[in-house]
Amino acid sequence: EKENAEIRLSDPLQYQSIVDAEWNIIYDKLDKCVKSGAKIVLSRLAIGDLATQYFADRDILCARRVTEEDLQRVAAATGGTVQTSVNNVINDVIGSCEVFEEKQVGNERFNIFSGCPSGQTATIVLRGGADQVFY
């Protein structure tokens, strides 16, 4: 969670109930993502190892730390909407594409969305033989 919380316990045995509640919240959010039917989850925030593995076990690709500009571009091309919560995700906010590929060009990896219903753009990746580029 983004917010820090302080909890004071009078009985050490209460600690496990707090830990269990946190795990339940995490798994509830992950289940909501899976139940939405999405096959690709993009997040502007970090995605932990637990969530990454949870999605991978269910054939869902996830990408973390996606820039706001890229999220908006993908949403516009796929007909989706950027969501700020996993609650009330309906089919109308989930975008679609015909083909999704992850390609490596040099040392960088790119997520390629092809056959998007609203896609009217193209990305061109230019590479040179050196790290220096002169204009």
UniProtKB/TrEMBL annotation:
* InterPro entries, per database record: Chaperone_TCP-1, Cpn60/GroEL/TCP-1, GroEL-like_apical_dom_sf, TCP-1-like_intermed_sf
Q: Does the keyword Nucleotide-binding apply?
A: yes
Note the Gene3D superfamilies from the entry.
GroEL, TCP-1-like chaperonin intermediate domain
Single annotated GO MF: ATP binding
Please tell me whether the keyword Ion transport is annotated for this protein: no
Q: Which UniProt keywords apply?
A: ATP-binding, Chaperone, Nucleotide-binding
Q: What is this protein called?
A: CCT-eta
Q: Which organism is it from?
A: Zea mays
